[in-house]
Amino acid sequence: MTWSGATRMLKRLASTIAVAALAVVASAHVGSPNVFFVGKAGAYDVDVVVRPPQVVPGLAEITVRVPVAQGASVRRVIVRPVFWQTGTRGSPTGDVAKRLDAAEPTWGGKLWLMAGGSYSVYVTVDGTLGAGTASIPVAAVAMARLPLGRPLTIVLVLLGLFLVVGMASIVRAAASDGLVPPGQTESPATARRGRLAATIALPVLALAVLGGWKWWDSTARAYERTLYKPLGVKAWVNNSDTARTLTLSITDSGYLSGRVTRILPDHGKLMHLFLVREPELDVFAHLHPSMPDENTFQTALPTSLPAGTYRVYGDIVHESGFGQTLTAKVTLPELAASAVKTEESSGDDAWSIRGERGALVPPRSSVRLSDGTLLTWTSDGNPLVSGRETSLAFDVTDSAGKPVMLDPYLGMAAHAVVMRDDGSVFIHLHPMGTVSNAALQAFSLRERGDTTAKGRLVLGDTARATMPGMAMAQTSAFAIPYAFPKPGHYKLWVQVKRGDHILTGTFDADVAP
Asked: Secondary structure of the chain: what % helix, strand, coil (to 5)?
């Protein structure tokens, strides 16, 4: 085997090391794996970021921030992984996080997530204000194969060659020197026998190496089949001259056979369905389908949505406490002109067909909502940079610049959708972060053992319920924690509610590397 061939083989073998089984359920906002949480841990306000590992078992990184006013009161911060199937009784004790050198009180920790599936990271803040715990749902799923660096690959190749040469030398010595009595000199015949044995051993060793390569290559292909993929779905539109109905059907065999936990309502909705027309990204809809059976979602589409090809994203939450985003594409046909209506929203469903562009020019960028109010994205003046945690801050004012009070929309001050223009990033956000109300409730109920006779979780009507730890008094301003995962051009749709109307503002943002 040549040096280059050995190097290629070692690279392929090394990339399959540190591989583990996948979870049956997973949390996967498209292209945005990190988890953001803003809420309460007892008397303490906390801002938590969890960066899940890309392979399982793997290390999750946790950052916990506490406001400066409360930071001096904190004695220690403890982070703990709690697996959804075992609860706290079957989970390891927590680790004390390390105080970091940062402008605001910040602690950092790392936790091993040993099994694939749904976790809740418990963050306990202990100090003079007492002790309190926040629960942050996190998914442990294998997302990629981690390659080895070039220096380590070279070291492994050298070690492999050393072992092959060493084995051949051992065989030669066993057939020659090893047969010579002590004190006697090796004869030419014995030396020839040793060289012959080594010559025969080399191709045998090469075949053994080749067999190992093929075995590891097969293992690598098997592992790739276990990398996380969202549930398989099929979407189509039934239409007539006056109406269109979108159907989204889960076709994944794991879900249909019951190996994947079923679906819970989040904010009182079994699915948050988003449609974005491509390639212009000029039309947006946020709908909430009904579920006629356990694997089918169905909704009537607004008549004002223009024809075209749409990307479809469906956010769901499983009984395990974690959600994922189902993806599909559909083509909407034209409706008869007499059937098209111009209403902006219907109940909790809302859509925007104006396609306005809000150029992101710090420190403020505003768009006018359909009721005449202004939605303004405020900024600290710094450019948006991929990977940097930031707070997307907004306020709503009237034409005179006076604050306008908002009503809760599905229990939140606002909803936002962030999408990269190529569709590689899509996420549904709230002022509390990326976690869902249903996930928090699911972990709480399972910890207490609250299930039905059939083992299914029962959640109350959360359509108007507030997220835990967030006061829903009327407000005119809100902030959403996030970090853009990679550079590029992004579209943001921000939705607020006034009275019975859902209002949607559209922004454009360029994110630097």
From this structure: 20, 40, 40
